[in-house]
Amino acid sequence: MIRADLHIHTAYSDDSKTPLERIIARCLEVGINCIAITDHNTIAGAVEMKRIAPFQVIVGDEIQTSTGEVIGYFLAEEIPKGLSAEETARLIKEQGGLVCIPHPFDHVRLSTIRHQSLETLLPYIDIIEVFNSRLLLRRHNIKAQRFAQAHGLLASAGSDAHTPGEIGNAYVEIPDFNDKDQFLTALAQGRVFGRRSAPWVHLRSTRVKLERALKGQ
Question: To the nearest whole number, what is the mean pLDDT of the chain?
Answer without folding.
Answer: 95
